[in-house]
Amino acid sequence: MATREVFESRWQAAALLLPTVLVSVVFLYVPAVRAFELSLFEVGFGTGEVDFVGLENYRTLLTSPEYHLSVLLTVLFAVAVVVGVMSFSLLVSFLVHEVEVGKGLYLVSAIWPYALPPAVAGFVFFFLLHPSLGVLTRAIEPPYPTLGLLERPFEALGVDVDVTGPLEAVGPDVDWFSSGPQAFALVTVVAIWKQVGYNVIFMTASMNNIPGSLTETARLDGVGRLGRLFRIYVPIMSPTLAFLAIMNTIYAFFGTFAFIDVMTDGGPAGATNILIFDLYRDALQNFEFGTASAKSVVLFVVVGVLMYVQFRVTEEYAYYGG
Amino acid sequence: MTLLETIVDAPNRAAEYLRGGRAGDRFARLREDGLAVHAALASLVLLLLFPVLVAIVVSTKESGIVTGLADLVPGGNAYDNYYRALVELEFYRYMLNSLVMASVIVVGKLAVSLLAVLAVVYYRVPYKDFVFLFILFTLLLPVPVRFVPLYRLVTGLGWNNTVFAITVPYLASATTVFVLRQHFLSIPPSLVENAKLDGVGPLEFLWRVLIPMSKGILVGVSVIIFVYAWNQYLWPLVIVGDDLQVAQVGLGRLRGQAQAGEVAWALTMTGSVLTLLPPLVLLVLFRKPLLETFSIQRK
Amino acid sequence: MSDRERFGASVRRSRRSVLRASGAALAATGVAGCVGGGGDGGGGGGSVEAVNDELTLWHAMGSGGNGETLNALGDQFEEETGIPINMEFQDSYESVLTNFLGALESGQVPDFAQIDSLFAKQVLNTGRVDPVEELLSEEFPVDDLLPNVTDFFTIDGTLQSLPFNNSNAIMYYNRTAFEEAGLDPDSPPETLAEVRSASETLVESGVVDAGITWPNHVWFVEHWFSTAGRLLFDAENGHAGEPSTLLTDNDTARSLYEWWRGMAADGLYVNPGIEAWQEATSAFLQQEAAMLLTSTAFVAGARSGAEKNGFEVDNAFYPTVGEERVGPVIGGASFFVPSGLPDDRREDVGAFLEFMASPDVQKQWHKGTGYYPIRQTAVDELSSEGWFEENPMFRTALDQLQASADDPATKRMLVEPARQSQQYVQNTSVEVFSGDTSVEDGLSKMKSRVEGELS
């Protein structure tokens, strides 16, 4: 077998690797190890005083209801983002796959959010759904414009009726400055929006690899559109879907800081205080460097597990799957 | 047609479509796809575009106070808003900072990674798998995992509020190394063997053979790195001050710039549109190499 | 604090930028070498190096508006004394704090840091700052500083930091809306109950969407406590020892939160968000709400903003929880000086402090910003010049301050960790007024959370 490894000098190889290795060690490995070390200390900011406290910082995390809420929220958030973005993207990708006319245009219009800076996404939605100024807020909030459609039948009967009353009770009052669930929903929607582009790219590529003959056979057997999507496409696409599930989870954990910072600041009452925001606040607003580092270590474990799962899943499919 | 061809070819096909055929023909083709499918697709895509369309409209208005859909008619203030944001309020500074940061990271990351991949693919080195794993393992260490020590390290170096702080820590890249390695492995080994027989050194081989052969991939990787760097938020926020701040963070500062303490919505949306433009333009211009590169990354 | 709305500094959330030495920090290390780490000038600090050759002030006053006024003062100081000074904007009070603490730790320090009074304790606790009183010359009339202001900044009888931009919270109201709703614009509400009934009238008459708004910031809760003569923290709000708890188990707290919750439930209150100074002023200027609680530093902005939006604005004392009115707490910031600067430098530092506290400068600063002057002489001169008669909105906060009783409750919280305590109060407030939890549960939760931080 021919080999590419034709150059021998170890010196040269080491020199070529040096920049990457140096940056990795200095800015990635050493700080990561130091994070672990710092997590065992209490650090005074401004004085530089450092006290060894052992596992105290971890104990704080174990007993802090705020941190537990943050963990729970983050898991919920990740699940919502992964499920939301993948269902939406699957639908879009499938429909694009189904049409012939305007396909390219649809695709470009679906993948562009890949380039969307998170803070921009945050600000635009902050404006769209601002509780008192938002463009969409008034459209969502009652009284709804009924265009007289509801009143008219009653009027025809000569009955005077006020339909805004009952409707008002049903409609939501958009106030995510006060309502935790609303703020959480909002942040989730924005996070999904920004991630659609990335998912559509991979899903469409994966759908395009499905042999046309399969689609044809299914059509002849009278399998409907949705049946084809779920019974044929999705199983074939499962390696890609697994890959995306992991990437989206990592995104939900680490790529969503800007949304929180721009829109909710972790609030109201901690309802959107996901782990990464919590860590930032602990480190740079509260100067709790020790606990913040312990939180970093927890996050490291999370990424580690996710990466491991991804590795295993990919490996499995490499052998048995697509 | 592959995904790539479909997207890359879209403008041509759209033009062709508009030129050719009678109206009846077009409609027939739409019918073949299913009108319901087109309706659904169009509304989904509109849903994705709607927020940014609103931002664009608001960026042309005077006050930016919009209380209903009826107010969503473009105003005549576009020039004023963009001039005010970019020039008077110096948003151009933040844009420039972002541009510098992203460009330095693109060039630096590519250079550093190309050298490393050259060693990994074309050198016989001991413990090669270990070296490769060592690089890949950095995927496990995003900024939040090393937040406090990195912050202290960079300030300790006296790098805070310098371009170094927002570029150097980004230079090592597992994904770039991975994609380039995959690509180089697809180049026939005979090429390097011949080069060596001709007495071509490794760096010359990289410069004269590998790079010219990999233009597409390099452009694709560059776009990915650019978008990644442009979209960094947390790290610049904490490590550099106003002088070097990036566009995404600078956006927050536009908000407070209107007179008399009001929120400057029109200006904020103007800034949002400006911040979105550079990565978006790159995505549209270089969609072909970008998607090619993604297909390698997935492998 | 409280005064962020006007300078376009980042507002709703804290922005972090770090150790902004002028130019690159790399250059700063070089320069600092020349200055040399001077002798230990007292205090607990070891040797420190100045971050710049010139005197350097880190501030949070923004780049326009108040920031410009501040820069002009710097230029004037250079002209008068020939001592160069660098005014470096650090983006927000939180950033100044972070950067200053970082500087104290690394030993490369600015000569002055403008620290929000809320964070005073945190800086004092490092033991690496010198009381400014030691830097002022013998002739400087410390007695001429307004006692209601210096009270907060004086610890163990020594002035620790120089108060500069100080304020309290007052109520702004929309006279036009009041008239349209049939309310008397000359007798604005004085208590929370009156605020509520005025709000009801305003909303029912359809003039505005809601009655009142204010940013959800602990400063406003502090005001409600102090005007009621209540301490918010034990140990006299931290001035008589280390506080250990939040004093929310009382009728003042209960009536305040019952009121707040009722206002929210009935749509009479606009919640602009946590620490949302700008959103609150926006809601007021756009006439969504006819009353606004915010800092006196908003006076100039209120005037021009109201004019632009076509209504007449006025201001009044802060509405009280009950009938009692003891006095407001202080807001705004003061200048801290690090220990260990060399002696010759300390002289220049002292000169600058005296300059900033001089009656002339205080008058200029007051007129340009709305912060009240901290010198009795300045107040007297402004009165005799007829300034307050021509500009009655500028005197409200000062009147409120001077009408204040000498009571421990009017000394602002001096607590570490202030930031966490502040966040707990603000976050729990949302839970209570949004109806997620009962007033009783919310208050005890607030108390136990803060206790957890203080212990």
Characteristics:
heterotrimer; B: 299 residues; MetI-like fold; 17 helices; flat; C: 455 residues; alpha/beta; D-Maltodextrin-Binding Protein, domain 2
What features would you describe in this structure?
The complex is a heterotrimer of chains A (322), B (299) and C (455). Chain A is mainly alpha-helical. Chain A has 2 domains: 66-131 and 180-320, MetI-like fold (Orthogonal Bundle); 133-174, no CATH class. Chain A is 71% helix and 2% strand. In chain A, strands 1-2 form a two-stranded antiparallel ribbon. Residues 163-170 and 318-322 of chain A have low confidence and may be disordered. Chain B has 2 domains: 3-75, no CATH class; 87-297, MetI-like (MetI-like fold). In chain B, α13 (215-230) packs across α17 (287-297). The two termini of chain B are 20 Å apart. The mean pLDDT of chain B is 83. Helix content of chain C is 44%, strand content 14%. The two termini of chain C are 25 Å apart. Chain C is an alpha/beta fold and 455 residues long. In chain C, strands 2, 3, 5, 6, 9 and 15 form a 6-stranded mixed beta sheet that branches. A 5-stranded mixed beta sheet of chain C has the order 12-11-13-10-14. Chain C folds into 2 domains: 4-167 and 331-385, 3-Layer(aba) Sandwich (D-Maltodextrin-Binding Protein, domain 2); 170-327 and 407-454, D-Maltodextrin-Binding Protein, domain 2. The chains are: A mainly alpha (322), B mainly alpha (299), C alpha/beta (455).
